[in-house]
Structure formats: structure tokens, C-alpha cells
Amino acid sequence: MYRVVFIIALLLVCKAFRDQSVAVKGRFLCGKAPAAKVMVTLIDAYPDKQMKQNAILSKGYTDARGNFMFSGAVAKISALGPALKVYHDCNDVTKFGVAKPGSREVTFVIPDHYIGAGKTPKKIMDVGSINLELKFKNEERELK
């Protein structure tokens, strides 16, 4: 009898872990020029309690034209909180023309309705073209 209860409980716990996926694409510019080789990270901004930092779903760089396309999936009990972190040096100089240390770090939160069930995203969030010369409200600095 205890085995049956244990097996049912185990199956319910396994069922609670559900696959969730997300995809995002777009283009980054630096002024009128493509923002090539910009590091982009697709993260889960709401990691489970066991994780001490954001979970990386996908990571890479923009192409020569500034285009990117990333997708990722994770199996977890809690909701996925997808966000796109962008690390770049566009318009990143002092008023004396000297490059600042590190990179500018911008985070874009992806709306929940782009999160899909399963390992393959069914919708793609298209952020369009974004000029990274802009100063973003919650911008941070990544020092390496």
C-alpha cells in the first residue's frame, strides 16, 4: 500500500515539473550602424530557490548586421521569468572621449504571453530594431 502511495506521489511531483520555452529575435543598432558582436543572454529572471543567480537559457552574439535569434527551455515547477540581457559598448565614452571600463548592461523583460508549454517555443517575441545609443532607465554596468 505504501508503495502505491509513494509511486503516485512521485508521479505527481514529476508532473509538476513542466517544460516551458521562450524565443526572442530582433536587431540592435549603434546609431545608424549595426551593433555587431554584442553579447546577448536569454535568462530566467525567476530562478528556483536552489539557484542563487539567474539561469541562462541561451547565450551568444549578434551577427554582422546586428541581428539575433535566441530560444531556450527549462523544466521547473515555478513560472518562467524570461528576460534578455544585452552587454554592449555603444555610446560608452566619457565626456572626454575616453572609453569607460566594462560594458553597459541592459535588461529587457519578455512578456509572459510569449512563454510556451513544451521544449519548443510556439511564438517568437520580435523586439524589432533597438538603437543601443539610448540610455535605459535601469541600465547597469558589467565590469569584467
Automatic annotation (TrEMBL):
Residues 1-16 form the signal peptide. The keyword Lipoprotein does not apply. This is Transthyretin-like family protein. InterPro entries: Transthyretin-like (IPR001534), Transthyretin-like_sf (IPR038479). GO terms for cellular component: cell surface; extracellular region. Its main location: secreted. The keyword Signal applies. Belongs to the nematode transthyretin-like family. Keywords: Secreted, Signal. It comes from the Eukaryota.
